[in-house]
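Quick start: read one record
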Amino acid sequence: MAKTYSGLDADLRRWIERQHLFFVATAPHDGRHVNVSPKGRDSLRILDERTLAYLDLTGSGIETAAHLRENGRITLMFCAFEGPPRILRVHGSGRVVERSDEDWDRWRSLFPPLRGDRAVVVITAERVSTSCGYGVPLLDYRGERTQMDAWVENKGEAGIDAYQREHNVSLDGLPALRTPGLLRQTTP
C-alpha cells in the first residue's frame, strides 16, 4: 500500500497531471495555526523529479507565503477522486517568487494567463510517498468555478493590488510578500 519514492517518476507525474485539485500545507515555526489550502485550475507544473511550481492566486489569506518566508517547509497532497484509490504527498522545501523578483517572468511564463496572480511557489521535493486512499470518496469533476475571475474583474488591477497590500500578514502575524500588490505591468 504505502510506498516512498526518491522523486516523481513518470507514472506519478502522469497521475498528478490528471488531478483537478491538490492541497498545500504549511505551518509557522512557533505559531498556533497550521494552514491547508486547496488549489485547482491549471496552476501546477512538474519541472523534474524533484521540482514543482504552482501559481499562487489572490485569496482570503496569505499563510503559505508567510510560512515559506519564515521556515520554507511545505507539503503538497493529491487525492484520487476517481479511478483507483491513491493519496500522494510531496514533502519538501519551498520558496516564493514575487513580481519584484528577477526571475518572475521566467516562472510566470510557465502558467496560463490566470488573473489575480500574486506569486509562484517553487517546491523542492525531499520526500515523495503514496498511501492507500481507501477513505477518499469518489467525486465527479464538473468544471472550474467562475467566481474568482468575476471577483478579479470587478476589483480591477488597482483593486487587486490594494487587496494584496491590505492582506499581507498571516494569522500568526508573520509578513508574507515583500512587495505585495505590485502593479501588474507584465500580465501575460
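The longest helix spans residues 147-166.
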